[in-house]
Amino acid sequence: AALTVRFLTRRFIGEYGDMAEFIYSHNLTVDGREILLHIWDVPNSQQAEDGSSEEKRIQWADSFVLVYSICDRASFNILPLKIQFIKAAKEGQSQEKVPIVIVGNKRDLHHQRVVSSEEGRLLALSLDCGFYEVSAAE
After folding, report:
1. How far apart are CA 61 and CA 111, in angstroms?
2. d(CA 95, CA 17)
3. What domain of life does the native source organism fall in (predicted)?
């Protein structure tokens, strides 16, 4: 949620209570073209709830940004399963590669890091995904 809010508003909000999922709309100019983005922001706790809801989200989306905390090993460890699920659902219908990017967040908290940058890069490489490390706070 912090990363989505930072992208949309350029502001950082450090504290969130119990988060619900939200769909945000945002206009963006890329290479001189106006693009309307719809961002379905789903907290990880809700992603695990219901397989049919997750399937609906996957069918709805054209691309995926999966965010983990570099300070939380569990948030990193669930990524391979999530990516396999997405690819099976999306690529099973067509031969097109689904765009997936893995993002390690909280780069500013390097002193609390438990997932190395190299682990993130290797995971992304092994699963044919993009990879970035960022800090929503910075």
Report:
1. 35
2. 40
3. Eukaryota
- Does an H or E element contain 86, and which? helix 79-91
C-beta neighbour count of 55 within 10 angstroms: 12
* pLDDT band for position 1 (cuts 50, 70, 90): low
CATH number at residue 115: 3.40.50.300
Domain that holds residue 122: 1-133
Look at residue 82 and tell me if it is in a domain: yes
Residue 113: inside a domain, yes or no? yes
Tokens of 16: 């969130």
Which residues does 103 contact at the CB level (< 8 Å), separation at least 6? 3, 65, 66, 67, 68, 131, 132, 133, 134
Q: How many domains does the chain have?
A: 1
Model confidence over 75-110: pLDDT tens digits?
Answer: 999 999 999 989 988 876 666 788 999 999 999 999
